[in-house]
Write a structure and sequence with these properties.
Blueprint: H1 3-12, E1 22-27, H2 34-45, E2 51-53, H3 67-79, E3 84-86, E4 89-90, E5 95-96, E6 100-102, E7 107-111, E8 124-130, H4 134-145, H5 150-166, E9 175-179, E10 184-188
Parallel strand pairs: 1-7, 1-8, 2-7, 8-9
Antiparallel strand pairs: 3-6, 4-5, 9-10
Length: 210
């Protein structure tokens, strides 16, 4: 059993946080490795754990103003034990596309910049933060996307900096995840996570789905 397998056991044992669903968020700077890590974690969790990519809810015009869509299209149905339906954004066509289903599975991963934002934390069973500095993450993202998206990245870094300045996620992370040459190192979250009553999840007062 490797490290991800061991942590998967812990995550599967968490109490539900959004109706019958355990929502696990993976947050961090753009380019920090969230998508790759979430895919590997989902594989370790097994049973076809679905992954919601927040890039599907954001858009060019609203890189962070997607909370209303998240709450109405995803959180509300999952909290009732129903399959969610959201409209993914096509970054090439610059428009939202046809509906996509997200099953109310026992465990659902959410990955993307802002996955641990304040409005979502009450619905999260666990918050993971990719422990890579902003500048290093952005450089990795720029290399990945090439020069043709340099203008986009110029605007994105400003928007991301403003977002985390106003609504930081890292101080509330349950664990910090650092990518290593082989695998990942999981570190305890910041001291703020140890404060009593830091987080009340929906699982504390939502009735089980019938």
């Amino acid at each position: 059993m490797d490290d991800l397998d061991r942590h998967a056991v812990t995550l599967r044992a968490l109490p539900p946080s959004c109706g019958p669903v355990r929502l696990i968020a993976v947050d961090g700077h753009a380019g920090s490795g969230k998508s790759t890590f979430a895919a590997r974690l989902a594989a370790a969790l097994g049973d076809g754990v679905p992954v919601l990519h927040l890039d599907d809810l954001a858009s060019h015009e609203e890189p962070f103003a997607w909370t209303d869509r998240m709450l109405s299209e995803v959180i509300a149905p999952l909290a009732q034990g129903r399959t969610a339906h959201y409209h993914p954004y096509d970054w090439n066509l610059r428009r939202f596309t046809s509906s996509r289903a997200l099953e109310a599975a026992p465990l659902v991963l959410i990955e993307g910049v802002g996955a641990g934002r304040q409005v979502l934390r009450p619905y999260l069973a666990w918050l993971l933060w990719m422990e890579r500095e902003a500048e290093e993450s952005w450089q990795r993202g720029r290399r990945r996307d090439g020069n043709e998206l340099s203008t986009f990245w110029d605007g994105w870094t400003v928007a991301e900096t403003r977002h985390f300045a106003a609504d930081p996620s890292r101080p509330f992370a349950n664990a910090l995840v650092r990518e290593c040459q082989e695998g990942y190192e999981w570190l305890p979250g910041p001291p703020a996570t140890a404060r009593p009553n830091r987080l009340i999840t929906q699982g504390d007062h939502f009735p089980p789905a019938s």
